[in-house]
Amino acid sequence: MAQRLLAVSVLAAFVSVAARGEPLEFERALQQQAKTDETWRAASDGHMRMEKITFRSRAGDLDIPAFVFQPLTDAARGSRPALVWVHEDIRGHLYEHYVPYIREATARGYVVMAPEYRGSIGYGQAFYDAIDYGGREVDDVVTAVDVLRSRYRQVDAGRIGIIGWSHGGLITLLSIFRNPRMFDAAVAIVPVANLLERLDRKGVDKQRALMDPANRFGGTPSQQPDVYKERSPLFQVDRLRIPLLVHVARNDEDVNIEEGLPLIDALRAEKPFLAVTKIYDHPVGGHMFDRRVNMRTWEPENNPEQRDSWARVWRFLEHTLAPQLHAN
Length: 328
What we know:
The chain is an alpha/beta fold. The protein has eleven helices and ten strands.
């Protein structure tokens, strides 16, 4: 957890200083991202094949960096399932605490693509300033499906899932609600669900400064409620057309249960045959419960709730992306 806490403190310091427009911080972030890339290469060695690519977002205005991880062994054309892996944090990137889980995914035969959507740190000021919370960042992530289908011959175009955490969970949900048939299964862990509730709870001015510095929303929630609802998964549940797994935690200090529980209730009421949900009462780590990792050994913390959550995730994905379910 020490490295995660360090990463968070560095991120917080970067956001604070970068908000004042100091270019030196962007240069430092670029250097830090290069180190992160090297860490991923080292962690991949002997476990999976890793490459760093870029692709043009279907929004048409930006090139998106992305990590791609593949199993070590080759497979027949169109034989492997794939996962689009969406990192957390408004100003985050693919954190190293995902190492054991992406290793597990590739060991299970998945091709994994992790897009560093607009607003992510480590790619310069223009990329940082392009943040579009719940907007074009979703286009960035969805474009990964086209890239997987066109560039990676092993990928089965009919077996592509998406998985995300926190803000990445929000992007995951908006991706499948806006593109009902593009993915074949989805997993959202402790997802941000309701911007109206979130801003009311955390402070409108503070949250708007973080998520919408360019005023792409066009105003506050009271001025533009429909915009905030369109970017809130809670209000899009009726659009669900594919199997979805959602986990939330009652002791989540970020996505409080008051934000997460209405989403669970809506899914259970409106989509009982598509949505699989689980509420963890008091998991170790709260918001981070399923991502706590020993950064020296790359091993998960393996507390009971973490083990249970990941076991459910893998079973869900193996069932929903199983080849026999997608034949013909």
